[in-house]
Design brief:
The structure holds 2 protein chains of 2 kinds.
Chain A: H1 10-13, H2 26-37, E1 44-49, H3 55-67, H4 71-74, E2 75-79, H5 86-98, E3 110-115, H6 122-134, E4 139-145, H7 153-156, E5 159-164, H8 169-182, E6 186-187, H9 189-199, H10 203-213, E7 220-221, H11 223-233, H12 237-246, H13 250-264, H14 268-279, H15 287-306, H16 310-331
Helix pairs in contact in A: 5-6, 9-10, 9-11, 10-11, 12-13, 12-16, 13-16, 14-15, 14-16, 15-16
Chain B: H1 7-10, H2 23-34, E1 42-46, H3 53-63, E2 67-71, H4 79-91, H5 93-99, E3 105-109, H6 123-133, E4 138-142, H7 151-155, E5 157-161, H8 167-180, E6 184-185, H9 187-197, H10 201-212, E7 217-218, H11 226-229, H12 233-244, H13 248-257, H14 262-276, H15 280-300, H16 308-319, H17 336-362, H18 366-382, H19 387-392, H20 397-405
Parallel strand pairs in B: 1-4, 1-5, 2-3, 3-4, 6-7
Helix pairs in contact in B: 4-6, 8-9, 9-10, 12-13, 13-16, 14-15, 15-16, 17-18
Classes of the chains: A alpha/beta, B alpha/beta.
């Protein structure tokens, strides 16, 4: 496998450059390679799946295989999570797709990779649909998303859909060992297992954890360091916030909520998602209480999408935690 | 000049040209004063407090060598009292002109909207009578000319409207004062004082004095307590009525009367609920109503205003969860959110720029960069193994410093 020696972050350094090198996606890769042999036949693509399963990597591989070294000239890479408004679609994509570079070799089009495209607003998607139509002779789109359901039907029907499922454990472990060997780090088997458990099928997360763990001891990554990394890297503030709410200090909990929003720029839905994750790490709650609270989080996650002011919904959610915390205190 | 003077007095302009803002009103007033053939003998200057009405009258009198006979709200203004002061001033014009340099008198009735019903019985009609009989110009000033009791005065007066003074003018004036008082002030601090004053020059100067007298340097940080001091009265009143309501009906009647913006109100209620309900179960119940109100707000968007009544209803229910437990408390204002976002803006911008750089190199969004890379990078920095990575990400020294010092989230 070719290694990008310039890149320092391992996720980039060991990001596959060719479709053949991609981890554990044989079926997808085989169909895509058929398009590569005859690029004219390539339709717009929609790559859907959970984070860290290789969607962006596959898209970048396609760009490289189509255009070779100068792929950047023929590829517009955008992240809809950063630029989700209709203006980006109108301005950047439209200009790029319309005045697209002259054909390259036997590839008669340029490429737009739109990452996290399910983050686009409805109007932006509608605008995109129109652009996909008018520019289909000069431009191909690769749309990447977590949930294909969030992409409007007319766009879905214009794309070939590829679903990326959770990466296989064994393949992930193999890949981690491959990287460790290249980096001359001894990776203990239990350590690799622990990383993969933690990453939940997200290879990017796993590689970042591995690289960070390798910073602890020269040339060795064992289970203990991995545990340390996981402890250090997991979000604490949300957990502290939940605990404060549960143990009656509502005002402090709300203050922490504003700290998360203000200092770190987390959105309401990001905080709710983290609360959902952290809930299961709170050992003092019974499984029944966790299930109840999880339900409540779900309700407020929905309300967030309906409401106008996410702080109000988060405040209300924390108050529910306080209520459960108090009932718990009285029962024992 | 005495040092213990209020700065509003110390720096009150002596010339018309030095009164800031309201150029049109100034011109109209001078024109009225100079024009001997007034169509109307009285003039009513109206507008919000602290925009220069009184100052203009005094500056003009000074410039035209007129003697001002003044009555303001601190004086009793019953018919009898007004006549006692104003009658001599308006009838015996000639006497004074010989004894002083004065070219005449003007009668200045400041704050006429402050003339009260009972104590100042007959006050308004007495003024009307004086205007009719007066041989000297009568000047009146008021904040709110729409009051019904002032209608007779409006009929007999030329109306001149004063508006809020524009922020840049206030900033420039604050800068001048700082220079004279030898205060080194950050521009942002003065800007905040000026904005906070909402065009009220007097309150801006008062704020500057209260902040600047103790220190010789004034930073943005120093101005933080300002907005807390200048509470929005109608918001405070609304909250007081809202939280003390004895029933759902009372709370919702109050909300429909209040002039407070509903989004501001929602934020204020969200901030103050924990002070109102100390029992977690009650608090959760109240917040649940607030959450429903917010959902209605979301559905209203920018067009479905017919849903506003449900919004208010849910909001009122949050106040009426446990009426019997109400005890007065001091409200939190301004909104915690606004304050937090204001003070953390620098941090957010810095973090965002770091995440954008990570995103560019690693093909991820800023959001993913923040969640999946920052925590790991922080550990590597702590282990002093991050230098190559940070260089490769092209992070600036201040960004690296920020990352190292940032609390983990």
């Amino acid at each position: 496998m070719a290694v990008d020696e310039e890149a320092v972050m391992w996720v980039e350094k060991y990001r596959p450059k060719k479709l053949d090198e991609v981890v554990d996606l044989k079926d997808i890769v085989d169909s895509l390679k058929a398009f590569m042999r005859n690029p004219k036949t390539m339709p717009h693509l929609l790559l859907a799946g959970i984070p860290g399963t290789g969607k962006t990597t596959v898209a970048l591989c396609i760009a490289r295989e189509l255009f070779g070294q100068n792929w950047k000239t023929f590829t517009l890479e955008l992240n809809a999570s950063d630029e989700r408004g209709i203006d980006t679609v109108r301005d950047r994509i439209k200009d790029f797709s319309r005045y697209s570079r002259a054909a390259f070799g036997n590839v008669p089009f340029a490429l737009v990779i739109l990452d996290e495209s399910d983050q686009m607003t409805g109007p932006a998607q509608t605008a995109l649909r129109r652009i996909m139509e008018t520019s289909s002779r000069t431009c191909r789109f690769i749309l990447i998303c977590n949930y294909s359901g969030k992409i409007i039907e007319p766009i879905q029907s214009r794309c070939a859909l590829f679903r990326f499922s959770k990466l296989d454990r064994k393949a992930m472990i193999e890949h981690l060992h491959f990287i460790a060997k290249k980096e001359k780090v001894t990776l203990a088997p239990e350590a690799a297992e622990r990383i993969v458990d933690y990453a939940e099928g997200d290879l990017r997360h796993a590689i970042n954890a591995l690289q960070t763990a390798s910073a602890y001891k020269e040339g060795v990554v064992d289970e203990k360091t991995v545990s340390q990394v996981i402890g250090e890297a997991s979000p604490v503030q949300v957990q502290v916030m939940i605990r404060k709410a549960l143990y009656g200090d509502y005002v402090e909990a709300r203050k922490l909520m504003y700290e998360l929003i203000g200092s770190y720029g987390f959105s309401g839905s990001e905080i709710v998602r983290q609360m959902q994750r952290q809930l299961f790490n709170i050992s003092s709650l019974t499984p029944e209480q966790k299930a109840d609270l999880s339900n409540i989080i779900g309700e407020y996650d929905y309300r967030l999408t309906q409401g106008a002011n996410s702080d109000v919904q988060l405040s209300a959610l924390l108050a529910q935690f306080s209520k459960v915390g108090k009932a718990k205190g009285e029962s024992c | 000049m005495r040092e213990d003077l209020l700065w509003v007095e110390k720096y009150r302009p002596k010339k018309i040209a030095d009164v800031i803002g309201n150029e049109e009103a100034k011109a109209a007033f001078v024109d009225w004063l100079k024009n001997k053939r007034h169509t109307k003998k009285a003039v009513l200057l109206y507008g919000p407090p602290g925009v220069g009405k009184t100052t203009l009258v005094n500056a003009a009198a000074n410039e035209f060598s007129l003697r001002v006979i003044e009555m303001n709200a601190s004086d009793t203004r019953s018919e009898k009292a007004i006549n006692a002061v104003a009658k001599p001033a308006t009838s015996f014009v000639a006497l004074d002109t010989f004894s002083t340099e004065s070219k005449g008198n003007i009668l200045f009735m400041d704050e006429v909207d402050g003339i009260a019903g009972n104590e100042d019985r007959g006050g308004v009609s007495a003024i009307v009578k004086i205007v009719e009989e007066s041989r000297v110009p009568v000047i009146m000033a008021a904040n709110d000319p729409e009051l019904a009791k002032l209608r007779p005065l409006k009929k007999i007066s030329t109306l001149i409207r004063f508006q809020q003074v524009r922020i840049p003018l206030i900033i420039a004036m604050l800068q001048k004062i700082c220079q004279k008082e030898h205060i080194k002030a950050e521009f942002e601090a003065l800007e905040r004082i000026a904005q906070n004053s909402r065009g009220d020059v007097r309150s801006a100067i008062n704020d500057l004095q209260s902040l600047g007298e103790t220190t010789k340097t004034l930073t943005l940080q120093d101005t933080m307590m300002l907005s807390a001091r200048n509470k929005d009265i109608s918001m405070d009143e609304t909250l007081r009525g809202y939280f003390s309501a004895k029933s759902l009906a009372e709370a919702s009647a109050l909300l429909s009367r209040s002039s407070v913006d509903y989004d501001d109100l929602m934020m204020a209620v969200a901030d103050n609920l924990p002070l109102r309900y100390t029992d977690p179960a009650r608090l959760a119940e109240a917040y649940d109503f607030l959450s429903q109100a917010d959902m209605y707000r979301g559905r209203i968007g920018t067009e479905n205003w017919h849903l506003l009544k449900y919004y208010y209803n849910s909001l009122a229910e949050a106040a009426a969860v446990q009426p019997e437990s109400y005890k007065p408390f001091t409200f939190i204002s301004p909104p915690i959110k606004i304050i937090t976002l204001f003070w953390t803006k620098g941090k957010r911008t810095m973090l965002d720029s770091i995440c954008a750089k990570i995103g560019k190199q690693c093909h991820v969004s800023r959001k993913t960069a923040k969640e999946d890379f920052i925590p790991f990078l922080k550990i590597m920095i702590a282990k002093q193994k991050a230098t190559p990575a940070l260089a490769w990400l092209e992070l600036a020294p201040e960004e690296i410093d920020f990352l190292a010092k940032m609390n983990k989230f």
